[in-house]
Amino acid sequence: MKVKELQSTDLELIYKTFKFFSPKDQSVMPISRMGDALRWMKLIPSEAQLQKYAELIDPDNTGEIDVNKFMITAADLWFPTPKEMEKHLWAAFEVFDQSLTGTISSELLKDILVHTGTEPIPISEADKLIKQYEDKETHQVSYSIIIHELME
Asked: Any idea where the EF-hand domain is (predicted)?
């Protein structure tokens, strides 16, 4: 999406997020905080995407981003509607749930999180996430609960 296509409430959220992740009374935010800020808004950039954005918006390697460039970056990752985001999340989980049971094993989820893709997360983070959502008896994770919480 483009910035001009965003709703005023979306623009306000992006601006408030920028201010929250910027050092006090600064008109710039450290590039190193960009990923955290975008993910705080429930956007899902990969580290590779963040690197590409950083190269585009900070070609001089100042290590900083202003609010306008942050808005452009956020808009580029923005889902047009919450339904689009939800659809994206369901599709991602269903890749690993071939039977469409609505659950995946804790073991599989951990393997996905720490080994799959270009950006695995630390084992400790995977364990923390699984502990939060795992059914202790079946060792299954109902991903509908994860999706529901992400959509709140």
From this structure: 84-119
Question: How far is it, in rounded angstroms, from Cα 69 to Cα 102?
Answer: 39
- Superfamily of domain 3-77 in the CATH hierarchy: EF-hand (1.10.238.10)
Q: Is the pTM of this model over 0.85?
A: no
Our measurement of the distance from residue 140's CA atom to the centroid of its chain's CA atoms, rounded to an integer in Å, reads 23
The backbone torsions φ and ψ at residue 141, rounded to the nearest 5 degrees and listed phi first, read -115, 125
For the chain, report the end-to-end CA distance as a whole number of angstroms. Answer: 22
Report the percentage of the chain scoring pLDDT > 70.
99
Q: How many degrees, rounded to 5, is the angle at CA 144 between CA 143 and CA 147?
A: 85
* Residue count (the chain): 152
Superfamily grouping for domain 82-151: EF-hand (1.10.238.10)
Q: DSSP strand E in the chain: where? A: 28-30, 64-66, 103-105, 134-135, 140-142
- Give ranges for CATH 1.10.238.10 in the chain: 3-77, 82-151
pLDDT of residue 118: 65
What 123-130 contacts at long range (C-beta under 8 Å, 24+ apart), as own/partner pairs, is 130/106
